[in-house]
Amino acid sequence: MTVIKAPKDVSKDNMYKFAIILFVVGVVLIAAHYLFLQKQQVLTDENWLISVDVSYTARQPESIIRIQSPYESKNVRNVGRRIDYPGLSIMPVSRKGGTKRGIRLRAHKPGTYQVGVEFSLQFNQASHFRDINNVLSPANREFFLSDNEWQQQGDEILNAQLNKFDINDIEKEKILEDIYKFVNKLSKYKSAGLRSIQNIVSTKSANFRERAELMVAMLRKAEFPARVVSGIELKDDPAASPVYWVEAYINERWISYYPGLGLKENSTANYIPLDKYAAGIVSVSSENEPLVADDYALNYEIVVEKMPVSIKGADNNVRQWYQVFVLDRLDSDIKEQLALLMLLPISALLCGLIRQVGGLHSYGVFTPTILALAITYADKATISLILVITLVLVYFGRPSFYRDMARTPRLSIIFTLVATGMVIGVSILDYFSLVTDGYIILLPIVIVTSLIDRFFSTIESHGNHTAFIRLIWTFILTLTAVPILHFSWLGKWLLRYPEAHLLTLSLLVLVSCYPFGKHKIPKWLGFMTEPKSKKSQEV
């Protein structure tokens, strides 16, 4: 008896080989990254932790708490942070920086809130990190030359004091030096607070904040862009108080001055700046109308502690091509966003695995992943808005002439309806004081447009029942993908070793080789199965 062997599936064998190659290459690159690029890192002198504990009572809805994060310098870099903010929603990081930088948390309704933030810093006396000394833009130059109310009240005294210096001196450095010496020679004034300029000058005494404010006022009168910097000193302190110094912009760079300490020109590396725009280390504001003192109560404590173990960090002074792959050198805010981005392929892998093994049909793998990303960033009001817009357009938005319309104008019509619907939805939320972040709306708008178009197409090709079953599975996969995007530790690891996604690609190839629907969904979920099409019944 002759046995006829089934023809070998060459294409599937090639896919298995390709998956193995991707896996091996990924492991090798991870090992090479760890062994080789670790040599390009430097051992920090010290590892510090700055904790900010905030107690906040809001008496008005939709107020915003801002906590300033440490600025990086050639001696200090941020390596991580942890935020605990029960009852509040975190706002997106502003790309503009300046007065919009830092951690922003929104309190949607009145109440008492507790916030805890921890910043992990690397400190190195050898100046191994990149010196971020920003160039002064024309708008910021005007800002750092303007007077505030405190300075305006002392105009006459400032002018009289400056007249003692030769402010028309060609050597501008000499004018700056004279102002610095004058402020530095003032006697120590131990009480906290901020007295008037007249009181400071008449008593010839000042505390550290008053010295900084007075020096900045005089420098601005002499047409030097200048700013008061508030921060903390790196030393073990269970109740750290803010420290103040001055930065003056001269010869196209910012130079630090520490009146009262007799130090200048960045000679005190362990002073860590937190605020450079007079916003306050911790502050409260509102997007609707300015808040007054009776609208809130704010208290905060800062704890500075030195960690026992020194850790390695990227040497940003090394300017070689392979530094592109050392993502540890990036700012902590950027790393948080990129770490979330690195989790998207893992989410897509999970959705693809569930679809392939269970034989499920949904509207794509990418759609649930992006919707999960929107849900992760958005608050409840925004999520509800996206869901309502989708369901309303799914149910009522199908035009009567849909069947005879080409795909391109069809998508354009749906896109217009989705965009208009979301704009009206945001207006409704604002009307009921359920403020949402506009940029969140932009994230899923294209996905929702494609989702609705595919829903209508499925109705035409498979009927209403199948179209709604696939829509439900799409939402179920979205909820399944949401927890993956909360694995911040995994995102940070993937950001450190981005070549690990070769392993993700390897797994995706193997998933594609798995027989579709080999394991059917349980019978008790039979109502979630699609009815067989006429074509499959004929087969």
Task: Quickly describe the structure.
The protein has 539 residues and is α+β, with helices and mostly antiparallel strands.
List keywords for this structure.
single chain, 539 residues, alpha+beta, C8orf32 fold, five-stranded antiparallel β-sheet, 43% helix, elongated, disordered C terminus
Description:
This protein is of the alpha+beta class. Among the domains are: 104 residues, no CATH class; 141 residues, C8orf32 fold (Roll), CATH 3.10.620.30; 125 residues, no CATH class. Helices cover 43% and strands 20% of the residues. The strands form five sheets. The chain has a five-stranded antiparallel beta sheet with strand order 4-7-2-17-11, with no helix packed on it. It has a five-stranded antiparallel beta sheet with strand order 14-13-12-10-15. A hairpin with a 2-residue loop joins strand 12 and strand 13. The radius of gyration is 30 Å and the shape is elongated. The two termini are 31 Å apart. The relative contact order is 0.13.
